[in-house]
Specification:
With 81 residues, this protein is of the alpha+beta class. The chain has one domain. The chain has two helices and six strands; from the N terminus they run βββααβββ. The strands form two sheets. A four-stranded antiparallel β-sheet has the order 3-4-5-6. A two-stranded antiparallel sheet has the order 1-2. A hairpin with a 7-residue loop joins strand 5 and strand 6. Helix 1 packs antiparallel against helix 2. The protein starts with a strand and ends in a 7-residue tail after the last strand.
Length: 81
Amino acid sequence: MAKFRCRCGEVIAMSGEIPNPLEWHITSDQELEEFWEEQDFEGLQQAARPAFLCPTCERIWIYWDGYEGKRVSYALESDDD
């Protein structure tokens, strides 16, 4: 099973349960429009960047260049000014 460890220590499974409740797919508004007009939903899914949400710290991990590329993490910031 493919998995990785979040910075908080949580192990995030990339495979297993389908659909994966921790996996999201990110696409630009422009890409969405192009695939939507063509009703090419399979192409949309392939073009979208995979992302995973850590259930513990809510950090988001995005694979901007697909599953084989480097993942980048984004952490929540405080709304306190």
